Amino acid sequence: MSFVETVLQENADLCAAIRAMPFNRALADGTLPTEVFQHYIIQDAHYLEGFARALALAASAAPDADAVAQLAGSGAGALHVERDLHAHYMGLFGVTAADFNTTPPTPACDHYTSFLISTAATCTTGEAVAALLPCFWVYRDVGHDIHTRAAGDNPYRAWIDTYVSDDFDAAVARSCELSDRLYAQASDTVRGQMRAAFAKSTLMEWAFWDSAWHLRGWPTPDPTGIAA
């Protein structure tokens, strides 16, 4: 089997759990609380910057010109999307520049981007691309699932439509093709590392949405609980 066929089979239960998450159910039926979506888009903007950095690092070590061009182009595209978040969606949902600038990445966001960047910087290109693929694949999977259930007057319809566009489908297809190509050329050891990287990133996709649903941030130490 190809890489994509293999990892989708290995992670089928986790992908199903992501589609069924409370955040995604509420996004589909339009009942997601505004403050939850505001929290989510701030963290998504932080995430996309880290994702773009990881793509740039992966591009720098890619094995051929086609892979360099694809990964670098995807990184530029991620930054373009991040800027659109600031220019459109944050304004649409009442998130100010000050809100964004004073809200740090959550533990879930920080963990995910740190994993992607460190993998891209220290591991094989195959492993880096495998770690980056769930951001493409899972979003398309969730987007298509939500799109089939979302009403036309869903307040989040424009956001949902982003992930079922022809352009995004094409980007996902290109990422899958590159992953399959690198997997076919890899040793058995690297193939195992690629599958593990995909599984870890898919789990962190789940953790990212779970964190957004529960509005999780960094814990605040209580000085009164520190022993003298």
TrEMBL record:
Question: Can you tell which superkingdom this protein's organism belongs to?
Answer: Bacteria
GO cellular component terms, semicolon-separated: cytosol
Give start-end of the signal peptide. none
Write down a Pfam family by its short name: TENA_THI-4
> Alphabetically, which GO biological process terms does the record hold?
thiamine biosynthetic process; thiamine diphosphate biosynthetic process
Q: Which residues form the Thiaminase-2/PQQC domain?
A: 22-213
What Enzyme Commission number(s) does the record list for this chain? 3.5.99.2
Q: Which GO terms describe its molecular function?
A: thiaminase activity
Its pathway, per UniProt, is: Cofactor biosynthesis; thiamine diphosphate biosynthesis
What class does this enzyme belong to in the EC scheme? hydrolase
Known catalytic reactions? thiamine + H2O = 5-(2-hydroxyethyl)-4-methylthiazole + 4-amino-5-hydroxymethyl-2-methylpyrimidine + H(+); 4-amino-5-aminomethyl-2-methylpyrimidine + H2O = 4-amino-5-hydroxymethyl-2-methylpyrimidine + NH4(+)
Reported function: Catalyzes an amino-pyrimidine hydrolysis reaction at the C5' of the pyrimidine moiety of thiamine compounds, a reaction that is part of a thiamine salvage pathway.
What's this protein's family per the entry?
A: Belongs to the TenA family.
UniProt name for this protein:
Aminopyrimidine aminohydrolase
- What is the originating organism of this protein? Roseinatronobacter ekhonensis
Gene this chain is encoded by: tenA_1
